[in-house]
Each structure stands twice: as C-alpha cells, then as structure tokens.
C-alpha cells in the first residue's frame, strides 16, 4: 500500500454565497498520478487551488473541513503558507512566466527562498530544466526573454520552475490544455516520470490522457465527488451512471446530455 500524501476530509468551499465544493472526501496516494475530471465549472480548479491555499487569494472565499498533507493540517494556525506552496507546487493551464529572462524565471523560487550561491542556483535550475526536457532548448538562451519561447516551451519552463524547489506534490491544472500534440506528448512523458519523486494531482479534460497517465481518477460534478476509484475501474466499470455518461462522452464537458 502506498502512503497517503493528501487527505481531504469533509471539505467545503464557498466563494461569497456560492457553495463551490461540497463535502469532499478524498485520499491522494504518494507517488501516484491522480486525475481529477468533470464538467466545466464543477470545481476542479478550485479543488486544486485549495490544496496549496491559493483560494485564499480570492476575496470572499471561505472553507470548512480539513486538508492534511502528511500529518499536517494545512489551515492550522501557524502554518507557513510560503513553505506550503513550496512543498505543493502548481502548474496552470496557460504558461504564466514573468516578463523577464529565462534564467530569472527559473531562478525565482530559489531567490525568494534566499538562496544566493550562484553555483547552487545554476545546479538546481539545470537539474529542473533537464528533468522538464527543456534544457537543450534553453541552455544557450538563458538571458533571452522567456516570453520569446513557444507556448509549449513556456509550459515546460513553467514545469521546470515548479520543480526547482523540489516540491513533494505537484498540482497540474490542464497542463496540456493549450498545447499541440507534440508538446502534449512531451509533457505527458514528463508527468509520468514525475511520480518517481512526487505525488501528482492533475486536472484534465482529456479522457484519453486521464486513462493513459493516471493511477486513480476522481470524477466531480457540481462540486461533489460522484465517484473515485483506480483509473482502470473508473474507465472500465464505472459504478455511477453520471460517471459512465461523462467518460463515454454522452455527457459533454458542460454537463449536458447529448
Ligand atoms: N475567483 C472566483 N470568484 C468567484 N467564483 C469563482 C471564481 N473562480 C471560480 N469561480 C466559480 O466556481 C465554480 C467552480 O470553478 P472552477 O474554476 O473550480 O471550475 P472547473 O471545474 O475548474 O472548470 P473548468 O473545467 O472550466 O476549468 C464555477 O461556478 C466558477 O464560476
Ligand atoms: Mg478549471
């Protein structure tokens, strides 16, 4: 049995008066890829953003319930949110690099942690860029603007930047949502390799991708977990009609029956 890395207990989230996540109970195992699927607007991004407390940046957001990472409840008073986000990195659907050089983007997580040793910075960013299969494309362009890169390269650079701080968990919100098939394949390989060192929680709209990559799948609709199980069970013998409708494409991404 793999260790449980993220344990979500009776978690609810509201944005103002709107109840977005409803009584979520979930266990995410270490060194596995957990896919989160469901119609648009069902709360997938909100769930990921809850795991590193990014939702707190949204005005009017409040929650109830618990999220444990290892033994630590992340909302406990005294939790260092900065360290939490270092431990739990996030990659977004669209690359979100700063309008600065490739080097500065990669070095940012280290610099804000107070790392000054140039050799150490160089060593860590090289390792992360190699892992993210972007090294060969950027090694001679470190001082160029990061926004000169193609979107697929930018997304791999975002992944490299997320890996620089050696997170234990990586949250990926439709990481290939805006990419062509070649870039998608590269990122899928990367995600697959990540589980050796990390726990991956990934939102995807692509059922083939969820089936190909993930070990465990969570299906959410209208803010509730409808079904969760090993990916092979969810895709071959779903227990709930809604899950079956969604994965077979009878219910579209907007939750409408075709
Ligand atoms: N900053 C915000 N303020 C208010 N409501 C929000 C905010 N962000 C999201 N919502 C609402 O919360 C609900 C869940 O949104 P969320 O982005 O989590 O859905 P999602 O499942 O990721 O959808 P998609 O597949 O389209 O990305 C939606 O009704 C959305 O309109
Ligand atoms: Mg989303």
3D structure, described in words:
With 258 residues, the protein is of the alpha/beta class. The protein has a single domain, classed as Rossmann fold (3-Layer(aba) Sandwich), CATH 3.40.50.300. It has a six-stranded mixed beta sheet with strand order 6-7-8-3-9-10, sandwiched between helices. The N and C termini lie far apart (40 Å). The model has no long low-confidence stretch (mean pLDDT 94).
Query: Quick one: CATH superfamily?
Result: P-loop containing nucleotide triphosphate hydrolases
Work out the strand percent. 25-35%
The largest beta-sheet arranges its strands as: 6-7-8-3-9-10
From N to C, what is the helix and strand string? EEEHEEHEHHHHEHEHEEHH
Q: Which structural class is indicated by helix and strand composition?
A: alpha/beta
Helical fraction:
25-40%
CATH class: Alpha Beta
Ends: how far apart? 40 Å
The beta-strand count equals 10
Low-confidence stretches: none
Average predicted local confidence, pLDDT: 94
Number of structurally distinct domains: 1
Sum up the overall morphology in one term: globular
Q: Under CATH, the topology is which?
A: Rossmann fold
Radius of gyration: 18 Å
Question: Number of helix segments?
Answer: 10
Cofactors and ligands present? adenosine-5'-triphosphate, magnesium ion
Secondary-structure arrangement, i.e. CATH architecture: 3-Layer(aba) Sandwich
Largest sheet: 6 strands, mixed
């Amino acid at each position: 049995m793999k260790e449980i890395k993220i344990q979500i207990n009776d978690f609810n989230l509201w944005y103002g008066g709107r109840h977005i996540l409803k009584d979520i109970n979930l266990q995410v195992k270490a060194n596995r890829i957990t896919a989160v699927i469901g119609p648009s607007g069902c709360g997938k991004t909100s769930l990921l953003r809850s795991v590193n407390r990014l939702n707190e940046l949204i005005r009017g957001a409040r929650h109830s319930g618990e999220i444990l990472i290892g033994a630590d409840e992340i909302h406990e008073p005294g939790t260092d949110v900065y360290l939490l986000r270092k431990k739990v990195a996030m990659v977004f659907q669209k690359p979100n690099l700063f309008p600065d050089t490739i080097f500065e983007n990669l070095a940012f997580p280290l610099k804000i942690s107070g790392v000054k040793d140039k050799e150490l910075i160089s060593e860590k960013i090289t390792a992360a860029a190699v892992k993210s299969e972007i090294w060969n494309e950027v090694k001679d362009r470190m001082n160029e603007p990061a926004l000169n890169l193609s979107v697929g390269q930018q997304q791999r650079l975002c992944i490299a930047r997320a890996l620089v701080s050696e997170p234990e968990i990586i949250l990926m919100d439709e990481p290939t949502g805006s990419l062509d098939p070649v870039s998608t394949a590269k990122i899928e390989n990367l995600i697959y390799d990540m589980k050796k060192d990390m726990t991956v929680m990934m939102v995807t709209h692509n059922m083939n991708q969820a089936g190909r990559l993930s070990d465990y799948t969570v299906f959410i609709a209208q803010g509730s977990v409808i079904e969760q199980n090993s990916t092979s069970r969810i895709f071959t013998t779903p227990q709930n009609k809604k899950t079956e409708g969604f994965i077979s494409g009878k219910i579209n991404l907007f939750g409408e029956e075709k």
